[in-house]
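Re: that chain you flagged

S.,

Sorry for the slow reply, it's been a week of failed gels. I finally had a moment to sit down with the sequence you sent. For the record, here it is as I used it:
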Amino acid sequence: MRPTQFIGAGALLSQLLPFTAQAASIACNTTYVIQPGDHLSKISEAAYGSQRLYNKIVAANPNVIKQPNVITVGSALYIPCLQSQQAQQRVAPAEQVVVIPATANNATSTAPQAPAPAQAPELPPIRMGSIKVLTGKDYAPYVDKTLPGGGFSYQLIDKSMVFEHEKAEDYRIDVVGDWSAHLQPLLSEGMYDVGFPWFKPDCGKRELLGEASQWRCDNLLFSEPLHNIVITFFSRADEPTIDSAEDAMGKTICRPAGYFTHDMEAMGLVESKIKRFAPDKPEDCFEMLRDGKVDLVTVNADTSARIIQALGMENLVKEEIDLSTVQSLHAVTMKTNPRSRVILRRINRGLRYLYNSEEYRQIAAAYL
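Prediction finished late last night. Pasting the structure tokens below so you have them in one place:
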């Protein structure tokens, strides 16, 4: 199965955009318009010299990429700089976007054009008492006391809460190290109003989810995505390619202990259909894959890239892109909290403004 693309007005695009990601380099801190023939891995290679860093592009484009193997011709992707590029890169302004003008040939095309920067929504001010916000620690780059500004997620929530509320003093963010206590009892009992960052299960497939995931669907309201994270699957390079979840049935799959499983549940990859190993460390999974003890390893893209390089396994494994998913992190509130919808509207309003601003790009560049 090849990655799905929504392709329209192909001839016109070819004339106006004479190169694709496969044939040119892409400067970081710019906006790139997806063209016919592009794949995320090729865009990543053109921007960073490596196909495996496409997750950086996914992370910097919340609400644009829903699946790593599905991209839409005409959509605009912000290409963030890696930290190693920032000091040496001389770039064009990030706002420079190649826009395809509407003509008689493409006016009715279903391919979306590069979006114009959104204006801050006109909503009445929100007035309320003290809002108690809860996060944890030791979860870099999203929240960590050793990171500047508290981490990527911390910065987004903090700036969203003060959007149109300069010097706002009606909220506080507390750091509680015990993540297991956040949702229950700290949020469920009303000791806090908001928690972040938390993954959102596919609640449209509730019947396939485990008990913990069903609880989130039944009890939580979710903000717009703070981040998108690619969850990868790797097999040995000499094994046949896996084209679908059905092809993975009966396989032995390794995902470390403590990792969520709602993405696998939604695909039907549950204990009755697969055999799962859950060692303490992700490194153990890749060593088991190398030694032929498991068929697949699944962890987030940053972790897989780091371990594959550290173990020298670049030529021993291949990514099964059709199993990979994009999972989103959110701020959450309890449905039973009467202030939840008002608080989330405030957060979402700030996030929407941030995502279309240079400030978001600066924040992302500090952590990606």
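What I noticed first: Residues 4-86 form a domain with the Membrane-bound Lytic Murein Transglycosylase D; Chain A fold (CATH 3.10.350).

Talk soon,
D.
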